[in-house]
Specification:
The chain is mainly alpha-helical. It contains eight helices and two strands.
């Protein structure tokens, strides 16, 4: 059982996928799930000598085929070992109720129909095009008077579903993180980490490695350069 402690979260999830078990939760939950699955698995039945000999012959044939494949790859100069060893691991997903899933889907559909809100005269000056929405003022302001050739106004009718308010599009609730101690307060099943902008590169790497151990998703993880 100590072998599971030395394995990473990605390796534990691969073991759970092979066993057909859920892959959500922290590292301790993954280890407990693997241990329970190993205890409940039924012992294999004894095979007859005829079946054992047949299996040995098939194993020898498979090993011979593998040796031939390895020789072919050894002759190929463009073969890359990193591509073989690389294992794709899916990103963590939250555990959501049916009501929350429906709210997120409705919010996404509403967002597609929502216009883009730009401030008055945003097209005239570059500094205004880089700024966000500003409420129009002035008695003769065409946007305030809602002339149709001007941009849309922010109104209460453009609001989204209240149940999905403040959630990431994936369904996680975002928690700001500035050090590894902040990760201990996060629930990996419903919350995700967002590293602060002032965190340096070295500390960011330690936060990423600690999040992988706890099975926590980092929303703004940087790609390796």
């Amino acid at each position: 059982m100590s072998d599971y402690e030395n394995m990473t979260v990605a390796e534990l999830k691969e073991q759970l996928k092979e066993a057909g078990l859920p892959v959500s939760g922290k590292k301790a939950d993954l280890i407990a799930r693997l241990q329970d699955g190993a205890e409940t698995s039924a012992p294999a039945k004894k095979e007859s000598p005829v079946e054992e000999s047949a299996e040995e012959e098939s194993a020898e044939e498979e090993s011979a085929e593998e040796e031939e494949v390895e020789e072919e790859y050894d002759d190929d100069e463009d073969w890359d070992d990193e591509e073989v060893d690389a294992v794709h691991v899916a990103r963590q997903k939250p555990i959501l109720s049916d009501e929350l899933r429906a709210a997120l889907a409705l919010r996404a559909a509403q967002k597609k129909a929502t216009p883009s809100f730009r401030r008055t005269e945003w097209f005239r000056y570059k500094r205004l095009s880089r700024s966000g929405w500003r409420k129009p003022h002035g008695m003769d302001n065409k946007q305030r008077r809602n002339y149709k050739y001007r941009g849309s106004l922010v109104r209460i009718g453009h609001g989204k579903v209240n149940a999905a308010s403040g959630l990431h599009p994936s369904g996680f609730k975002e928690i700001m993180v500035h050090n590894t101690a902040d990760l201990d307060q996060i629930d990996a099943e419903s919350q995700a980490a967002r590293v602060g902008a002032t965190v340096g590169g070295r500390k960011r790497e330690t936060i990423h490695s600690r999040a992988d151990e706890l099975g926590i998703r980092v929303l703004n993880r940087r790609r390796d350069r």
